[in-house]
Task: inverse folding
């Protein structure tokens, strides 16, 4: 099996949820990586320097470098490629929340489509004379659309995105694969299911529900609560990305998933039991705060991932059992009230006010 070595890795979107966990994994928990990481992040509402305060203190200026810029800032990003002699891109940067994309798609088109196009072109220019390089694009299972009660998405499932978010990610996937076919540019792509874990912005189901429980607020469930998602711990996702970076030939695409399907309402009840136990809250009161609200427009019914390709071809496997991972996630939010209040006091608050409270 191919073994690629990585020296200078550009991580885009490294202050966000998955990117920050990826950087921590690479620098702290991955003895097989001894190179440097440059974190390129423009710091939207979702980019939070507190996610990497420990990494900044331990590695800034030696193995870790933060550069605040957008992936579309061509001149700045070109200079970063040259300054750090980048040989690998792991492209996480994106607008990532479906509900926001429904309320305002423009930023999704700008960052996810035009931003990815610009980053591809910068990398292609800067790497024109190099062969030992790789551009890995991080994407989602949502590009495949919505499933009925049967079947799972494979790497050859047709694309059928149904939200502005998933349409923008599908577009970026097509650009990345087309750059591979047309220009012989070395790309890989992964489509992962729903991630959970520490540092996830509290607009997504799991962290929003944990925080609302702690704060005694209602727990909103969209529609009938029977939509199904496949959940994976962020560490399992990031180990899969590392596996692809080091072992995959260029031009390949992999599905990554937890093989762990849950109806939203069943997941919420499990999360209630765990949070009640850990935070000393009353399970019955928490259950009573579950509130069925108007459904998300175009709400995809079911996602399920067939990830046998990465398992068979590259030897990756999930390692974090779901209820243990959920427990650790609840522990993290309970242990980090300062992170929560910082996140809640900033642009997030303003955005909620503009988009919800003033409507
Ligand atoms: P996130 O919203 O937590 O973080 C996104 C990060 O990208 C932020 O730090 C933000 O500041 C940065 N960013 C956004 N636009 C940028 C731009 N134009 N230039 C530079 N930086 C920019 O997102 P996440 O949940 O960590 O997701 C990361 C990636 O993984 C995304 O591409 C997303 O589509 C993909 N993904 C997410 C999930 C999930 O469950 N969260 C599942 C599969 C795939
Ligand atoms: P989310 O975490 O937004 O991820 P995605 O839409 O990318 O799958 O939502 C996960 C599921 O939970 C999805 O079916 C929508 C639902 N949901 C709720 O029922 N209530 C909520 O408050 C949120 C944020 C999501």
Result:
């Amino acid at each position: 099996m191919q073994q690629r070595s990585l020296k200078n890795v550009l991580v885009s979107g490294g202050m966000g949820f998955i990117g920050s966990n990826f950087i921590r994994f690479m620098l702290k928990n991955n003895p097989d990586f001894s190179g440097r990481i440059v974190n390129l992040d423009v710091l939207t509402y979702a980019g939070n320097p507190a996610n990497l305060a420990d990494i900044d203190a331990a590695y800034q200026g030696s193995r870790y470098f933060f550069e605040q810029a957008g992936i579309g800032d061509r001149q700045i990003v070109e200079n970063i490629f040259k300054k750090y002699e980048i040989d690998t891109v792991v492209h996480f940067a994106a607008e990532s929340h479906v509900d926001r994309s429904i309320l305002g798609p423009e930023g999704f088109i700008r960052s996810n489509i035009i931003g990815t196009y610009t980053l591809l072109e910068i990398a292609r220019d800067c790497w024109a004379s190099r062969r030992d390089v790789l551009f890995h694009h991080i994407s989602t299972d949502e590009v495949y659309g919505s499933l009925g009660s049967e079947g799972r998405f494979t790497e050859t499932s047709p694309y059928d995105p149904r939200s502005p978010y998933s349409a923008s990610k599908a577009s970026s996937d097509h650009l990345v694969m087309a750059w591979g076919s047309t220009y012989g540019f070395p790309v890989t792509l992964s489509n992962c299911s729903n991630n959970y874990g520490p540092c996830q912005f509290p607009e997504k189901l799991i962290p929003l529900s944990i925080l609302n429980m702690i704060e005694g607020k209602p727990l909103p469930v969209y529609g009938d609560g029977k939509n199904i998602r496949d959940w994976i711990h962020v560490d399992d996702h990031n180990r899969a990305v590392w596996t692809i970076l080091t072992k995959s030939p260029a031009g390949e695409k992999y599905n990554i998933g937890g093989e762990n399907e849950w109806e939203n309402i069943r997941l919420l009840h499990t999360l209630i039991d765990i949070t009640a136990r850990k935070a000393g809250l009353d399970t019955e009161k928490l259950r009573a705060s579950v509130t069925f609200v108007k459904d998300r427009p175009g709400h995809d019914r079911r996602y399920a991932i067939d990830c046998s390709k990465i398992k068979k071809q590259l030897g990756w496997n999930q390692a974090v059992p779901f209820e243990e991972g959920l427990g650790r996630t609840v522990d993290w939010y309970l242990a980090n009230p300062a992170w929560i209040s910082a996140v809640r006091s900033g642009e997030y608050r303003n955005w909620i006010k503009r988009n919800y409270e003033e409507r």
